[in-house]
Amino acid sequence: MSFAWDFKHAISLHFQAMRFHLPFYNMRRLNSHQIRTRSNGWDAVMLPLVSFLYERGWRQGFTLWAGFPGPEKEFEMMKDYLNPVTGGRIIDASCASGIFSRIFAKSELFSLVVALDFSETMLKQCYDFIKQEQNISQENLILVRADIARLPFASSSIDVVHAGAALHCWPSPSAGVAEISRILRPGGVFVATTYIIDGPLSFIPFLSLIRKNFRRISGSNMYLSKHELEDLCATCGLVDYTYVRNGRFIMIAARKPN
User: Fold this and answer.
1) Which of 90, 105, 251, 255 is the most buried (most CB within 10 A)?
2) Residue 156 has what DSSP assignment?
């Protein structure tokens, strides 16, 4: 099966899912070997307990120790980046329990909101929260299970990709951002928040290499400096990089050239 799905097909599947009460689309099934070889940091979000706790204290902790403003304030911060692409299709990549997916859907700024995550337990939690909301239209909101490094969407078909507190969890940030760049239409926008590691020596390539190799061995998360985040976007073909930061929190934005 080709993973370059167009949205006509996706929407058709959406209505089939509603008819049969399916919570989400499992767009990619990985074998047990592929799952075992993922990093420990990525595996943590697959646990049912983490999925249950994510909006019950876990995400709130980001504000206390990393300076994250909180979902509503983060949404207000990113509106300037989203203005040129309102009315289009947005993917909430690594959506977790769907905090931002629900915010995007309720804002009515987008024609389609895709809540996407690799974790089945996170998507089930996302689905449960959506069912509890009274003012979310399910006509323009779909849930998709997929690997960030192999997105099941056609090239140049998406207007916005958002990744909230996610980049540092991806097994390969470069593979993820490259895929995002591929599916963005010309002029499309990538907005992300993550934890930042920087300092007077963060630009030294040798230290960066040590950090990356340690991460590969230990399975810990990948924390990048603001210089590395800018290089990551540029390497993947994105331009007009900009950022806002507060403590260890950073929000970055870049776009695909016209």
Assistant:
1) 90
2) T
